[in-house]
Amino acid sequence: MKKLVLSTIVLLAFSASITLFQMSCHKTANAQSPAYVLPAATTTKLGGVIPDGTTISVDGTGKISAIAAAPKQQNKIIYVKNLPLAGSGGLYYGQIWSANYDGTGQQQINITLPTGLFISYTEFVRLSPDQKTIFFNVSDAKMDSNGTGFYSANIDGTNPKLIIPYDGAIGTVEVAY
Q1: What is the CA radius of gyration of the chain?
Q2: How many Cβ atoms are within 10 Å of 23's Cβ, its own excluded?
Q3: Strands of 92-100's sheet, edge to edge?
Q4: Paired sense of beta strands 149-154 and 133-140, if any
């Protein structure tokens, strides 16, 4: 019986020491007091953050959207040089060129077209809004409809393709949007 009482006292002391140890190690950490509630997104605020409107937008329903970056201004002009077409009896052809706004850095945009076709001498060359594609008129020396019409090409002159064939009426590319 003496051993039973002694064992009980030892177990009681052991459990008391564990309880005291746990109580001494218990710590609390309150990051925010009182509890913070994130405000609802509006068209002008996104959870307390104000979107700059250039990269992130929030519509009236709270839908968050990324805004595509606008093409960077290149400060370039696109123009056509009119040159006489050799052996054509007075016809002209065009070369598409680019230059800086101040006229420096003039560079021809070399476009390879099928045999017998040339860029029309008209000054109607247009640049797409994303500044990656140019649009222009193409003619041939016979002035028939074989391959003539409105063409497009990459800004570096690659990948020329007929987009609107000549249908008997004369026209120009006015706007690309």
Answers
A1: 38
A2: 8
A3: 76-84, 92-100, 107-108
A4: antiparallel
Q: Tens digits of per-residue pLDDT, 123-133?
A: 678 888 888 89
Query: How do residues 57-104 score in pLDDT, each as one tens digit?
Result: 777 776 777 777 666 777 888 888 888 877 767 777 888 999 999 999
Rounded to an integer, what distance in angstroms lies between the CA atom of residue 177 and that of residue 171? 17
Per DSSP, 39 falls in state: P
Question: Beta-carbon neighbour count of residue 39 at 10 Å?
Answer: 11
Residue 148 is encoded by which pair of tokens? 């003539």
Q: What's the token pair of residue 113?
A: 């077209």
Measuring CA to CA, how many Å separate 29 from each of 32, 33, 176?
9, 10, 62
Instruction: Give the percent of the chain with pLDDT over 70.
Output: 70
